[in-house]
């Protein structure tokens, strides 16, 4: 992805990432249930949509964040369905280990960049290079977060998991704020925690008997909140790309 289309990593960015995790959790469930394609049948459609976004993004020279956030939502939606499918195909321990290795491997690969000028520009925005390894790591983090968010709900209950993981996310964000600029690997740690917390919180919002709003309304709420964050939260720098 072109640097001109990448957002700056700050409080606005992490708020959008966290809400994208809730939205993608709800949207993935809604997509699988209502499209008639099932958990894995809709993934090729999402791949095609992501490919179209990448093609258009490469041709657009105007600074804008739209492409980045569209890909985040598409990938998060697909990750939800891949995780829900995969956990039924192999033992939990094996699936969890595979996901951990994949996420760490792709995250490490995304941190390697031999172009000093490109590395400097992207580091100023606070994220690794957004090449193929970055997007593979983002997908892996989404599948990882969905799986371990579900595991946490199974172990301690849906409400407790949502609350505990939300607190963990806040703690991780505090660490990132203190050291993130000098330790870029904290970026991927924070993404993984956001994906995991988003799964538990998104499921709780859609399935809570106390709220009783259902999956469709939960998806509308999280999607609207995600959009509002991007549109209403001012960007820090005049150089930041428009949406």
Plain-language structure description:
With 243 residues, this protein is mainly alpha-helical. It has one domain. It is built from ten helices and no strands. α1 (11-34) packs across α4 (66-86), α8 runs antiparallel to α9 and α9 (185-207) crosses α10. The two termini are 15 Å apart. The model has no long low-confidence stretch (mean pLDDT 89).
Average pLDDT score: 89
What are the segments in which pLDDT stays under 50 over at least 5 consecutive residues?
none
Count the helices. How many?
Answer: 10
SS-based class? mainly alpha
> Compute the gyration radius: what is it?
17 Å
The coarse silhouette is: globular
End-to-end Cα distance: 15 Å
Q: What is the helix fraction of residues, given as a range?
A: over 70%
Beta-strand content bin = under 5%
The count of DSSP E runs of length 2 or more, i.e. the number of strands, is 0
Sheet of most strands: none
| Count of domain modules | 1
Q: Helices and strands, in N-to-C order?
A: HHHHHHHHHH
Architecture blueprint of SSEs:
Blueprint: H1 11-34, H2 38-41, H3 43-59, H4 66-86, H5 92-110, H6 116-125, H7 132-156, H8 158-179, H9 185-207, H10 214-232
Helix pairs in contact: 1-4, 1-9, 1-10, 3-4, 4-7, 5-7, 7-8, 7-9, 8-9, 9-10
